[in-house]
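SEVERITY: medium
COMPONENT: batch folding queue
REPORTER: lab tech (J.R.)

DESCRIPTION
The queue accepted two submissions in a row. Attaching both inputs and their returned structure tokens so the on-call engineer can compare them side by side.

ATTACHMENT 1
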Amino acid sequence: MTIEAAKAALVPRNVLVTGGSGLIGTAVRRHLSKQGHSVNAIDITDFGRPDPELTIMGFEDTDRLDDLVKAREIDSIVHCGAISGPMLAHNNPMLIVQANIVGTSQLLDLARRHNLHRVVFSSSISVYGNADTEVIDESTTTRPTSVYGSSKVSCETLLEGFSAEYGVDCASLRIARVYGPYRRANCYLANIIRDAKLGRVTEIPCDPDFAYHYIYVNDVAEALVEVLLASRDFGGRVYNVSGGAALTMPEIAAIAQRTVDGAQIRLVPGADEVPDVQREFDISRIAREVGWTPRFSLERGLEAYGQAMARDPASRPA
């Protein structure tokens, strides 16, 4: 059976989406709903946005989670919740450990106890840290340079353990830098779009040789959902998920100035908040085994992001 035929044969799923009001979770919800699946979103906050379909709930509330799974006949989890980047909770490492590692273990145990179909986990390219190879594939040694990156390695290992010992089918997606509507953390691309609308210059600290790996949020959501719905068993398998092109900030600035009306960018000497050196990502495994490839170039992503920010002020960074 081809990948396309396998997808067509799938039945609708009842999916629990964690981090449902966040950057990735919001896009996953939209993508699943468009395909006719039942979406059950949870998060610890709605960020002040009206969202009647969101349940305010944390991972530690195991009794309510049990009730939710049973009442709505949930059969799968897309885990997008918890601390979402190495720049967040930087001075509170135990919060990262509790939210990421303990929270993920609670969800995996939920899947074990209820015999759920699959858990798909949003991991990060931060697991690689400073990579010592030109091309990073899934066999590249993980050397995280942050507690956040270490927490993602730990979560991936938990997925492998729950799969091996209890038969929980799961997969981890090592996702590159995500940009798009509802991103809360600092994002140079969002700053460029916002400043252009206000007639301001965007100043960006820049090491001209440093490589960035951006991916538009719609591509990430599609990758997560494709893995969720795939007909194969994963058993804790990991996949790189990137936009496909490594770009330096001077290259990014040039693209933005061609794409975003009114963009004015000043590059000044400096380093990125997440200075892990990672040159090129091999994303052929997920293309070969799942059939996913990114659809948004940086140009197309910037256009879509700008349109979303213009439509919905709540989608802009705080």
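ATTACHMENT 2
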Amino acid sequence: MFQPLEWFIGLRYLRSRRRRGVVSFMSAASLVGIALGVAALIVILSVMNGLETETRTRLLSMSAHASLSARDGGLTDWQALERRIDAEPGVVGASPYVELEAMLAAGTSLHPALVRGILPAVEQRVSDIDRFVQEGKLESLEPDKRQIVLGRSLALNLGVGIGDSVTLLVPRVVNGAVMPRYSAFVVTGILEAGIADTDANLALVHLTDASELKGLHGAPEGLAVRLDDPLRVASFRAAIAPIAKGLKYSDWTEEHKNLFSAIHIEKLMMSIILMFIVGVAAFNIVASLMMVVIDKEKDVAILRTYGLDPARVARVFLVQGSVIGLVGTLLGTGLGLVLALNVDVIVPWLEATLHFKIMPGDVYYVTQIPSEVHVRDVVTIPLVALVIALLATVYPARRAAAIAPAVALRYD
């Protein structure tokens, strides 16, 4: 089969083993290094993508995507505002709420809590919190009955269960002085979301009870809104701007900004660190090709005397580096996809074999390692690795093209 001369000579040098054991080893090490770097990047970014999606899904399952609240006092005509928001495209539903920071006491135990007042029948329109209630029912919260649903960890810290009584302490500022307000509640439900902060701090009461404790006289503090696509909060904010004048707007991208910014920074730093593997492999390509240039100096000189111009001599060595980079990226891409698509099988096997939990529930939001392969990553990572490998061949190729036949053959 016809091959351009540069490809024929370059591939022959690549396959040659005579007197080049060290060079062949370095070429193989370069290939393996590129493959491992590409595979590691694909796997790590896929896991980070999965963690980001799973964290976002869990957080949003417990809360609305956006909220509108009064700057002072409560929303007196919240039903009219709810109807106008429901009419906006992309809105799944809206529900009134009240939030207050309080202390919960039971016996000698005292713990801080985020108390959220809701309407149980309407709350299901904006969150999936009802499916996390493990004991009791969310519908058990009735107005003026002083009933409360606690997170699992919060209930354990207080040492209470269904039917037990807890004291809710709400601080209020009266004439410049902090005056706590006490109220006894009966535990009618236990929820467990699998999110450490939520299970250890969240308490649910009826909207009417929370409103009275906050001094809003039965009115809600704001409206929680759920969208069909949580990533469209920016367009939703722009759409409701005319009807939200004078109200305070917030959404999940602002409330959890630090968390997702940290995830993005981790992804960036992991990409940079793991790309060093490819960088080391590229230096190996430079070293191995330089050794080939030195070893084949007389061969190159002879080719030059036969009329091979410097540009074609350079392409001979570009072929070698290109093949190493191409094969390494293809192997790494294949290996990375196999590992990333089977994380749910590999991780449990490693945990069972090594007898340890990689992501314990008391430390992480997500206890299982998810994987989400993005086409952008699968395309970008091999391309960047291939470009680095090609750049590594430029200097050796230029050195080979600069060989002077008269100097290289002066003693022959």
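NOTES FROM REPORTER
The chain is about 55% helix and 20% strand.
No errors were logged for either attachment.
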